[in-house]
Amino acid sequence: GYSKSGRRSKPLHLKLLTWFLWLREGLTFKRAAYLGDMDPNTFRRFAKKLNNWLVMYEYPKHVYMPTSDSDVSATMSKFEKLGFPGAITTADAVHIAWENCPTSERHMNTGKEGYPTRVFNCCVGPNREFHHVHGSHPGARNDKTIARFDPVFLGMRSQVRYSDRKFTLRTQGGGTREITGLYMIVDGGYHKWRCLQCPSKTSSLPGVMRWSKRLESVRKCSEVAFGILKKRISILAGDVMLKESTRSCVHIDNIFRVCVMLHNHLLRHDGWNTVG
């Protein structure tokens, strides 16, 4: 086919191959376009339109919180085997380096890492399957501030999500107690909400210390998922080579969501989502 200017357009399969190479190797638009033998502006427009289309139509099919009775029961049973009945997911924030951050906005995006980043609040299941992604936010924001903007966190706090789900806990006397409402497993940087359970750093009781150590071990599945994601798709491990305003980081958000979608798709294709 030919473009509007009369030039012969590149085949779609070549553009898709270049797009996969761009994500996998973390290349710049110019370098990826050179390897795909096409104009950099052509490939930039194609990549942004493709990412936007994938996030709009394909992303909700692959990244979602457990909603059906079977999905919720399966996820709860996995956490119960790990020693935490009533848990539905783990949550943590991941920072993505942003090299081309505008100079006037570097202070907003520079946090504890010491360089500009964008931070995404993510929920990850026990099998390293992403359930939810919210963001991005400026890298200088902490977890507590991000949690106040996350609809999943706010929904669980206001008992809109999973408020009718019940689970059983053991009491100190050897009996059982039925609790209504599920919770997330998080680290100590989040709020002390009932729906967010984090390890205790101040208690010296042996039972609480053992419980906290076990909780930290189970919570690591989110950090492991971040490591797998960055190793699998190198564009997230390096610097995102996009220059745009913080107020409209749509393309950076789309890149991260597309990578998460591909991660979940590969996880389910290989059958690892059913482990446990």
Features:
5-stranded mixed sheet, two-stranded antiparallel ribbon, 276 residues, alpha/beta, 7 strands, 44% helix
Explain what you see:
- By secondary structure, the chain is an alpha/beta fold.
- It has nine helices and seven strands, in the order ααααβαββααββββαα.
- The protein has helices spanning 12-25, 29-35, 40-62, 69-81, 106-109, 143-147, 151-157, 206-232, 250-270, and strands at residues 87-97, 117-124, 130-138, 166-170, 176-180, 183-185, 196-197.
- The chain has a five-stranded mixed β-sheet with strand order 3-2-1-6-7, with helices on both faces.
- The chain is elongated and about 75 Å long.
- The mean pLDDT is 88.
Helices and strands, in N-to-C order? HHHHEHEEHHEEEEHH
Helices, by number, come to 9
- What sort of overall outline do the alpha carbons produce when their principal axes are compared? elongated
Radius of gyration: 21 Å
Class by alpha and beta content: alpha/beta
Average pLDDT confidence is 88
Largest sheet: 5 strands, mixed
Catalogue the unreliable spans: none
The amount of helix comes to 40-55%
Number of strands: 7
Q: Widest sheet: strand order?
A: 3-2-1-6-7
Q: Beta-strand level of the residues, as a percent range?
A: 15-25%
Beginning-to-end CA distance, first to last residue: 50 Å
Short description:
This protein has nine helices and seven strands; from the N terminus they run H-H-H-H-E-H-E-E-H-H-E-E-E-E-H-H.
